[in-house]
Q: What sequence folds into this?
């Protein structure tokens, strides 16, 4: 569930298309990420009276196949690939099957993009946490990128929980805040933001109007 109040912080489900660059009016290079934002369809409307809270469930993408319970749930729209729930104060203003597109955003405003970061596999502490590593001279032969001491002495006598150590890196939920919208194409449902967003090309993302401006 995405903890966003849609009445004031609208958002859309989308897909990262990729990165490119454009030139602004001063002739300077602007790195941008193109996002396919929508079209999204309202697949469920929840109310405080019936469900205990107000929310809208959005669907995006086309599913190649859907089981019978999913088809029953999506009887008002075609099967969708992704569904996410967004809290809202005015759930009554939305209807099943309603279409939402990239026209929700305007050039110049700030947005947040939520996605899953790229997987980096098993990584050491230098790559994972930017440790400096050990000295490269003075007799050091095999500890240049190692962790170093991880335990304590007699108190408490064990490795403290949460210690930064080598392990799996990436594939985590990441939010990039306050990216400026530089282009909106409602006809093709494309939104371009300045800078990078989490994930690889074609990755699923959620783009919303910025919470902290």
A:
């Amino acid at each position: 569930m995405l903890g966003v109040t849609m009445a004031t912080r609208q958002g859309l489900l989308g897909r990262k298309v990729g990165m490119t660059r454009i030139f602004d009016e001063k002739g300077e290079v602007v790195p941008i990420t193109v996002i396919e934002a929508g079209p999204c369809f309202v697949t469920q409307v929840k109310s405080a009276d019936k469900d205990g809270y107000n929310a809208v469930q959005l669907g995006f993408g086309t599913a190649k196949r859907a089981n019978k319970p999913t088809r029953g749930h999506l009887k008002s729209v075609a099967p969708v690939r992704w569904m996410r729930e967004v809290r809202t104060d005015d759930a009554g203003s939305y209807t099943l099957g309603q279409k939402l597109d990239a026209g929700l955003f305007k050039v110049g405003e700030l947005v947040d993009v939520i996605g899953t970061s790229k997987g980096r596999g098993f990584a050491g502490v230098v790559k994972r946490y930017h440790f400096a590593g050990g000295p490269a001279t003075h007799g050091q032969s095999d500890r240049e990128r190692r962790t170093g001491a991880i335990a304590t002495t007699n108190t408490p006598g064990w490795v403290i929980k949460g210690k930064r150590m080598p392990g799996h890196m990436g594939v985590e939920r990441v939010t990039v805040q306050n990216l400026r919208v530089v282009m909106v194409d409602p006809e093709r449902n494309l939104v371009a933001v300045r800078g990078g967003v989490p994930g690889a090309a074609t990755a699923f993302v959620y783009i919303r109007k910025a919470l902290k401006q």
About this structure: The mean pLDDT is 89. The chain has two domains: 11-119+175-209, 122-169.
